[in-house]
Specification:
Shape: elongated
Number of helices: 5
Oligomer: single chain
Order of helices and strands: EEHHHHH
Radius of gyration: 18 Å
Structural class: mainly alpha
Strand order of the largest sheet: 1-2
């Protein structure tokens, strides 16, 4: 697991694998900030995007990512794969099923 400063970060529930890493006092995950950084946003832009997120915490996260890119990217891949498995195994809402049925009919007409 990462060695991020406890002043800025906290680990989510041990029941979840991989355990999510949150910015302390927020439900914003390390993953979300690093994804925005990878897309070219600056630390200041990320701080503005998330509002109340401490810019020092964002800077610490980005520095950690730069120093340990393979470790962070592996973690991100595991989190994204787990989220995708959950999404695929979740039951389809009846409204969504009905819309998909209507779209199939329209496309085949």
């Amino acid at each position: 697991m990462f060695h991020l400063p406890a002043a800025y970060f906290e680990v989510g529930s041990a029941e979840e694998e991989p355990q999510p890493i949150y910015f302390k006092g927020h439900r914003i995950e390390l993953l979300h900030v690093i994804e925005l950084y990878q897309r070219g946003m600056s630390e200041a832009q990320i701080a503005q995007y998330f509002g109340g997120l401490d810019q020092d915490a964002i800077h610490t996260a980005v520095e950690y990512y730069i120093a340990h890119p393979a470790e962070v990217e592996q973690y991100m891949a595991e989190v994204n794969a787990t989220a995708e498995k959950r999404r695929l195994s979740a039951p389809v809402h009846p409204a969504q099923a009905r819309l998909e049925q209507l779209l199939r009919r329209k496309r085949s007409a």
